[in-house]
Amino acid sequence: MAIRKSEGHELTAGAGEGSRIITRLHKELPHHASAAREARKNVADVLTNCGIGNTQEHEILLVISEMVTNAVEHALPPISLTLDTTGGGDYLIVTVSDGGPSSTPGEWVSTCTDDEHGRGSRIVQSLAESTGVVAAGNRTQRWACLATAWSAF
């Protein structure tokens, strides 16, 4: 199975030696509370069309939602979402990039109690095979690697 990279800013699904796979997504997102909803909307139909089962689709969308919300609440713009496949399509890498840490908390974070902090990170860590953070200059990238079970294979 070949993993093809496509250029541009659209999520695409393509045939890889007879199977449908996600090839690449790069989407700029607003630095706004609506960003997580926009990210989920952009990804949901393509996951279904690529053969992801309902349970796994919901888990992937939850990871995306939590990572994007974290960027909106704790970081500066710009925010972007990137999805890539690796390992012959066996893994989906979700990456959310932002403009680095914000010195002021976001609207939701500033109103929540101490026990509510960190829930999103724990959710992502529990669903992902691995996670990480890469900081370079004024950009921060948080990534999560999720095992996939493409029903089209």
Brief account:
The chain has helices at residues 35-49, 54-74, 119-127; strands spanning 12-16, 19-29, 79-86, 91-98, 130-136, 139-147. By secondary structure, it is α+β, with helices and mostly antiparallel strands. Strands 1-2-3-4-6-5 form a six-stranded antiparallel β-sheet, covered by helices on one side.
Q: Please name the CATH topology.
A: Heat Shock Protein 90
Q: What is the spatial order of strands in the main beta sheet?
A: 1-2-3-4-6-5
The biggest sheet, with number of strands, parallel, antiparallel or mixed sense and barrel status, is: 6 strands, antiparallel
Structural class: alpha+beta
The count of strands amounts to 6
Bulk shape: globular
The CATH homologous superfamily corresponds to Histidine kinase-like ATPase, C-terminal domain
Q: Work out the helix count.
A: 3
The helix content, as a percent range, equals 25-40%
Tell me the series of helices and strands, N- to C-terminal: EEHHEEHEE
Overall domain count: 1
Strand content: 25-35%
What is the class in the CATH system? Alpha Beta
Q: What is the architecture at the second tier of CATH? A: 2-Layer Sandwich
Radius of gyration, CA atoms, in whole angstroms: 15 Å
The N- to C-terminal Cα distance equals: 10 Å
Average pLDDT reading: 78
What does this structure look like?
The protein is an alpha+beta fold and 153 residues long. It has one domain: Heat Shock Protein 90 (2-Layer Sandwich), CATH 3.30.565.10. It has 3 helices and 6 strands, in the order ββααββαββ. It has a 6-stranded antiparallel β-sheet with strand order 1-2-3-4-6-5, covered by helices on one side. Residues 1-20 have low confidence and may be disordered.
